[in-house]
Design brief:
About 20% of the residues are buried. It contains ten helices and eleven strands. The longest helix is centred in the N-terminal third of the chain and has 31 residues. The mean pLDDT is about 90. The protein has two domains: about 80 residues, Orthogonal Bundle (Arc Repressor Mutant, subunit A); about 170 residues, 3-Layer(aba) Sandwich (D-Maltodextrin-Binding Protein, domain 2), CATH 3.40.190.290. Helix 5 links the parallel strand 3 and strand 4. Helix content is about 45%, strand content about 25%. The chain has about 280 residues and is α/β, with parallel strands linked by helices.
Length: about 280
């Protein structure tokens, strides 16, 4: 069987037109490349070159061999790329989530336990996640309601409650709890992509009081620095990171501010993704 490196050197020689130019391209000595071309002829058992003094040129056999060598090298590259791509697809999990916090946790757990896997993720308002799972757009979904479908397996994942982060001099800063109703006169900063939380918050707060935060909005960054903005935070982030010493975090008493998340995959893919879901649930 002819080795790939011989074909690569053969094509390089044909394209460069001389042993010297090809040897420079391949970072080989000219005698070493000459020996490779002789070895290639031995593998075929026929002459591939016309030799005129010190010059080597392809004969008819060599021209035919060159056509096949280029095809073989092209197929070899294609094979390598497709096999790598297939492996990547088989080691990629696509996650659709209704909210950012459980998604960050799930991605972190997967990357910790399964470092060889690649994660693609999307945050939506949650309405299309079950359909996306059944259509295999996602392999795992995170929802705020348990899917009622026998083709789907589901685990209770985690709970999250909202708190409102207020400047210390805000009128509501001394309260033990507040409601959405009490925040209706307060301008609230809300990140752009928070999935179903956007729908919930917009249903309780006047649209004119909501300021959607964009990553490139420098004016909002200034508000953050000055601690003059009001925004929502999660009880889980408070447990993990604490509260800014210059601010007050007050729990929201509304039921809509409390969510339980579920993680699901298709029952037919339990053997592939079930362990991921169970591992992430076990490290809560």
């Amino acid at each position: 069987m002819i080795e790939i490196y011989l074909l690569e050197q053969f094509v390089a020689f044909a394209e460069k037109g001389s042993l010297l130019k090809a040897s420079l391209e391949l970072h080989l000595s000219q005698p070493a490349l000459s020996r490779s071309m002789k070895k290639l002829e031995d593998e075929f058992g026929v002459l591939l070159f016309d030799r005129n003094r010190s010059k080597l040129t392809l004969n008819k056999n060599g021209e035919l061999a060159l056509e096949y060598a280029k095809k073989i090298l092209s197929l070899n590259r294609e094979m390598t790329e497709e096999v790598v791509l297939n492996d990547r697809k088989n080691r990629t999990v696509s996650i659709g989530s209704c909210a950012p916090l459980p998604l960050r946790k799930l991605i972190g757990d997967i990357q910790k336990q399964y470092p060889e896997w690649t994660v693609d993720s999307v945050i939506t308002d949650g309405c299309d996640l079950v359909d996306g799972l059944k259509e295999k757009k996602y392999q795992i979904i995170i929802t705020q309601k348990m899917p009622e479908d026998r083709s789907i397996i589901t685990l209770r994942y985690l709970k999250e409650s909202l708190l409102v982060s207020l400047p210390k001099d805000h009128p509501l800063a001394g309260r033990d709890k507040v409601s959405f109703e009490e925040l209706r006169e307060t301008e609230i900063l809300i990140p752009d992509n928070i999935g179903m939380w956007s729908r919930i918050l917009e249903s309780h707060l006047p649209k004119e009081k909501i300021i959607f935060q964009k990553p490139t909005d420098l004016s909002i960054e200034i508000l953050y620095i000055m601690n003059r903005c009001t925004y929502f935070i999660s009880d889980r982030s408070v447990k993990l990171l604490g509260v800014d010493s210059n601010r007050i975090a007050v729990p929201l008493e509304d039921e809509d501010a409390k969510v339980e998340y579920y993680i699901s995959c298709l029952a037919s893919q339990k053997s592939k993704f079930g362990d991921m879901m169970n591992y992430s649930k076990s490290v809560i």
